[in-house]
Structures are given as C-alpha cells and as structure tokens.
Amino acid sequence: MVTGGASGIGRTIATRSPASAPTWRSSTASAAGPDGYKVDVTDESQVKAAFDEVMKRHGRVDVLFNNAGIALTAAHHRAIAGRLEQVVAVNMTGVFLCAREAARHMLAGGRGGRIINTASIMGVVGGGLYPNISYQATKGAVVNMTRALAVEWARQGIRVNAIAPTWVRTPLIRPITENPEVMKRIEEITPMGRIAEPEELVGAVLFLASRASAMVTGHVLAVDGGFLAQ
C-alpha cells in the first residue's frame, strides 16, 4: 500500500514497483493507478475503512509505504497555529494512524510485514535555507516514530524503516525548483551538486520492502547525494 500515491514520490513508487500497489490519493490529484482510494490520512475512520477495503479486495497487507506529507513554509514567528496543526496532522498523526492500521492487519495475519515511512533530511538537520519549522519538526517526529515502532514490533516480525530524501523534483517543492537562487544554494551544499529525481528513490524503498533487508529495522536510509555526510 502506498499513501500519497497520486503524485511525486508516492506515484513513482506505486508505478515502478514490481507489483501494482493500492494507492491513496488526496482530493486534489488523480489516483496513481486503477486500485486507488481517496483517503484523508488524518481521519482515523477513513484510514480504518480504507485498510478494511484493501483487506477485503486483496486479503493481506505485506508492505506499507507511508508517504503522504505536506509542507507549508513560514517563519516561526509568523506561523499560524492552524496551519501548523495541519502539517502535524498529515505528516505525524497520519503516519501514525496508517502504521497502526497496517500493523493491526500484519499482526492478525501472522506473517509480519514491512512499513517504510518517508522522513526527510530536514528531520535530521535544522535546514537554514528558508523557514520551514513545521516540516522540520514533523519529519523529525517521523524519524523517531520509525525507531520506536521498529523496537515495539520487531519480535512480531514487522520491520519499520524510513527513507530520508534530499530535495526531490516533485510538485511539493515546485516553488523551490522555480527559484534559481535557492536552487543554486542547494546545489552548492549538496556534494553531488544536484537535487534528486523521484525515480532515484525507488531502489531504496524496494530494498527496505524486500527480503534483502531482512535484518534491517529502525533504520533511516538517507537518499541525499551526500548531504548528511558533511
């Protein structure tokens, strides 16, 4: 299952995976495939209903790519509480709700499973190029939520990991990619000298979803062109 599968990283993962994955989309984009669901990941009842529907159609949940997320740029002293709460609801609460429902079905099935959360390099560092306090805070929460859930479910055979991408060329960061000054600065501080393309995250996600990573849990895998190595 892929959340946020209508565009960007989620769409790429859903369409490049070896098998078609049920995808969840927002109300502002079209589904990534024929097996798409319109789900608000911040709504507990909608999340539960969507998982129940997937179980009804497919009979099991083996992998969750817990990817839905938003970003609202604003300096801390100008941030509006309601907008901050919106980011928290999607990027943190939504990740928790989807992980919990996936684990419920994985545990009931007795086969374990894999959960891969989308964190960010901004969940590990403070940024600094532009104010983005809500995104950085919530992605930091995803990093530690990944570790906590990995420890909690390890003995039950559920592996929980995360990817931490650099800036990726998706609609989410279009205001950045359309700003030559910011793009130039990102290229300067990234050892590989560029941002990532969505296709360059596929290998990391498939690795964490496969038996090749059978002994990997609680790990945050940076896909960042060397950014965090500095």
Would you kindly provide a written description of the structure presented here, covering whatever features stand out?
There is one protein chain. With 230 residues, this protein is of the alpha/beta class. 42% of the residues lie in helices and 12% in strands. It has 7 helices and 6 strands, in the order H-E-E-H-E-H-E-H-E-H-H-H-E. The N and C termini lie far apart (34 Å).
Blueprint of the fold:
Elements: H1 8-16, E1 23-25, E2 36-38, H2 44-58, E3 63-66, H3 81-109, E4 113-118, H4 133-153, E5 158-165, H5 174-177, H6 180-189, H7 202-209, E6 220-223
Helix pairs in contact: 2-3, 3-4
Summarize the structure.
The protein has 7 helices and 6 strands; from the N terminus they run αββαβαβαβαααβ.
> Mean pLDDT, nearest integer?
90
Question: What structural class do helix, strand and pairing data support?
Answer: alpha/beta
**Low-pLDDT segments:** 26-33
How are the strands of the largest sheet arranged?
Answer: 3-4-5-6
Work out the radius of gyration. 17 Å
Descriptive labels:
230 residues; 4-stranded parallel beta sheet; 42% helix; globular
